[in-house]
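User: Is it possible to get a 3D structure for a protein together with its bound compound? The compound here is NDP. I've pasted both below.
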Amino acid sequence: MADVLSVINPATEALIQEVPVDDGAAVAQKFKQAKQVQPGWAASSPADRIKSVLRFRELLIERADSLAALLTSETGKPITQARSEILAVPARIDFFVENAAQVLAPDRVYYEPASALPGMGMLEEVIGYDPLGVVANISAWNYPYFVGGNVFIPALLMGNAVLYKPSEFATLTGGAIASLLHESGIPKDIFIPVIGSGLTGAALLEQPIDGIFFTGSYATGQKIAVAAAPKLIRTQLELGGKDPAYVCPDADVAVAAAGLADGAFYNNGQSCCAIERIYVHTDVYDEFLAAFMETVRGFTLGDPTDAATYLGPVSRKPQLDVLANQVADAVAKGATLLCGGERPDRPGWYFAPTVLTEVNHTMTVMQEESFGPVIGIQRVASDEEATKLMQDTPYGLTAAVYGTDRDRAVAILGQLKTGSAYWNCCDRVSPRLPWSGRGHSGLGATLSLAGMYTFLQPRAWHLRRF
Ligand code: NDP
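Assistant: Yes, that's possible. Here is the predicted structure of the complex:
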């Protein structure tokens, strides 16, 4: 295992910093520390835990500018999008805080007074909720505040200790999150950053942890599931997607084009719920394509520290080859390249926004996650054809239908195996709704009340008094 990992700025390819890596022994020591103090944290008053989380909320707002600059420097995320991510976390915190006391409270589900059964005494049945214990949170780099916060905030509120491994591509942000939480009053041994690459993540899984909450690719998610299986611990996997959208013949084409272009290219397409495939009814195909291309041509690619930039570099260099290979495969099989398809002539890991038409499902661009600024648009003749194509991948994270008829959209979306279903919107997450995937998109849910109960285990109390 390397002693340090190098944090590189994707926009300039310059070294930002070398960060010491936790080896297996360091990971084991961190687990031991967390294990020792977690019972005390679980026994602390929920009000005190809430107070610390609310202080964290305040600090995020106060320091949004400097935190956003750090995130932009190591991921290449455009600065306005980095700020938006950080400033959207408070709404999620509000949801968790508002519901924490109710979720943690024991539920008395049955009561029998002593008089009802002579000689049997009073009977009470209560469901209590215990935290899992020490949980591991292995996180992705594309939205470290969102995908991390969806896990570590409710996990902490519910009384767990968290060993948090940020992606090696968002390591400095992971460190900043830890410092902020500690400054807010979360004890240092209750939220512990574990720094390193996938090897460090694997070392974390070797510890006798009580739960694993992972965000990342299907390929790594499978490895996590295999490593976690013998432990019989709560295993939650938030994985990738190949998220489709369908534009019905009665859609407001301008709205659909603007919404779907943003859904496909926001954060450079590096969102689990980015639009990755678009099917357009032939009746509105030409009109939609013209509006879509106009929006895409209006996107500014450039320095991610510039507030005018909408498209920065991709965050990981190897992704450039994935994107180039998908484009080459599509073109070789007959696709038309309407724009992009190559790296612009400038330093940094940039890939020009790319739109492919005349695509079909023999092409990798319509089957495998692109996770970059590449989109395929396919013409379809009917709702049935669109529905069939939308289902034709092993993923099931989100799906969108644009059109004026709600019943029609709900009927189409209801046939799909998808964790989130959007009508006239896309690439949207709400703290009040569960975030979950079907098939290769994952297991379990974050956000909503389900995403709070997942950090607890129920205990059945049978209480009799004579
Ligand atoms: P990866 O699967 O490459 O990595 C995810 C995390 O796992 C990283 O912290 C990584 O460390 C770590 N890791 C890698 N190998 C192992 C291993 N063998 N054991 C333990 N941990 C390991 O995904 P990315 O970070 O590239 O994230 C992008 C993917 O995440 C996309 O597929 C995207 O769709 C998905 N995603 C899903 C979301 C959802 O909510 N469903 C949200 C956001 C992203 P390191 O990076 O240091 O190698």
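The chain has two domains: 4-239+441-465, 243-431. The pocket of NDP is lined by residues 138-143, 147, 165, 167-169, 197-198, 201-202, 205, 215-217, 220, 223-224, 238-241, 272, 369, 371, 397, 435, 437, 442 (CB under 6 Å).
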